[in-house]
């Protein structure tokens, strides 16, 4: 029995570290980069990172090795990159381009192999003249190469074809907030993060209301996803292979799942983030790991500060970790039961053989 006890301790020791490891931390350096968004490039096994200060996109390895992918002097002066998305089927990098003054918003497309600009599609003139200036924010792409860009100022979603032709996909009344807290700094930031689902719809966050919307990519029809709690100050978002959606805010990373194609959804975990470092984007990297980008964008938007170190940090769901640990103990228990049954059978076998020999 003592040997059996030692076996259990050994199994627990081997299983224990499975969810006690530290999350993957990537510190990288680039002078005054202040990245607002990033994405994972599975082809190169690198992160692709934008900048609030430069017309430049860089590559960051999982060891923090940095290199420049493209620098585009053809973009308007003082413009910068916000949302970034990979289009692996068409070998492109899609990047939202912004300038604050005079206002400019566009979607840029670059060849993934040469980083040559394929098109630059302005979005400013697609809305009525009495609209506030477009504030393009994030971008997602479908399997046909159509890109979907959110406008945080007007609560609009644009659709940009593979060839760079832009139209308004949705100005749904569902996006119009009933009430917004005027005391929060993000009160004027509407539609923000966006992801594409292969069933033909988008999921879109709205920062100033904490809501999540499901938007049809064919006709732009939108409806609010019923959640068990608001996604306070929701910003960028990503989706894992198992369908779990992760939404980042300055304070938290939300883990959300749905069993009915996003008619309803449940926030099943919230992980606190380092607020002073201002995480603004989330991406799913290798092995379905979830990473947030600490880009210090509060500093970047002030324009009078300098920084050269930024971080990409893996974040795990504690709830999922505990659930998996339970299953580990269940398997250990089943293994122990199997061992006892096997030992009992062997003992009977030896006993019967001894009887026959006698």
TrEMBL record:
InterPro entries, alphabetized: 6-blade_b-propeller_TolB-like (IPR011042), Sensory_adhesion_molecule (IPR053224), SGL (IPR013658)
Gene Ontology cellular-component terms listed: endoplasmic reticulum
Residue ranges of every copy of the SMP-30/Gluconolactonase/LRE-like region domain listed in the record: 35-256
Top-rank taxon, per record: Eukaryota
Segments passing through the bilayer: 326-344
Keyword Transcription regulation appears in the UniProt entry: no
Tagged with keyword Membrane: yes
Keywords: Membrane, Signal, Transmembrane, Transmembrane helix
A Pfam family per the record: SGL
Residues annotated as signal peptide: 1-20
Name of the protein described by the UniProt record: NHL domain-containing protein
Organism: Perilla frutescens var. hirtella (Perilla citriodora)
């Amino acid at each position: 029995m003592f040997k059996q006890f030692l076996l259990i301790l050994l199994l627990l020791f081997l299983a224990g570290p499975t969810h006690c490891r530290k999350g993957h931390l990537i510190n990288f350096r680039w002078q005054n980069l202040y990245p607002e968004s990033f994405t994972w490039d599975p082809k190169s096994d690198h992160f692709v990172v934008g900048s609030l200060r430069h017309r430049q996109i860089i590559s960051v390895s999982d060891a923090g090795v940095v290199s420049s992918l493209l620098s585009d002097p053809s973009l308007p002066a003082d413009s910068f990159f916000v949302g970034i998305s990979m289009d692996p089927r068409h070998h492109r990098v899609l990047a939202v381009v912004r300038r604050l003054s005079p206002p400019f918003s566009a979607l840029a497309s670059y060849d993934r192999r040469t980083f040559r600009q394929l098109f630059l599609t302005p979005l400013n003139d697609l809305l009525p003249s009495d609209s506030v200036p477009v504030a393009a924010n994030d971008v997602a792409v479908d399997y046909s190469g159509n890109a979907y860009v959110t406008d945080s100022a007007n609560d609009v979603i644009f659709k940009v074809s593979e060839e760079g032709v832009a139209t308004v996909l949705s100005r749904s009344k569902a996006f119009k907030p009933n009430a917004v807290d005027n005391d929060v700094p993000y009160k004027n930031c509407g539609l923000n993060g966006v992801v594409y689902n292969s069933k033909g719809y988008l999921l879109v966050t709205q920062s100033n209301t904490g809501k999540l919307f499901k938007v049809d990519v064919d006709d732009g029809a939108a409806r609010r996803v019923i959640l068990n709690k608001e996604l306070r100050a929701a910003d960028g978002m990503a989706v894992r292979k198992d369908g779990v959606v992760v939404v980042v805010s300055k304070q938290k990373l939300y883990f959300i799942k749905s069993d009915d194609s996003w008619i309803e959804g449940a926030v099943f975990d919230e992980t606190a983030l380092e607020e002073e470092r201002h995480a603004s984007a989330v991406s799913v990297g290798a092995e379905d790991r979830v990473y947030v980008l600490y880009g210090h964008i509060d500093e970047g938007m002030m324009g009078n500060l300098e920084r050269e170190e930024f971080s990409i940090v893996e974040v795990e769901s504690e709830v999922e970790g505990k659930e998996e640990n339970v299953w580990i103990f269940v398997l250990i228990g089943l293994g122990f039961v199997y061992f006892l049954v096997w030992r009992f059978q062997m003992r009977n076998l030896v006993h019967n053989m001894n009887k026959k020999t006698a």
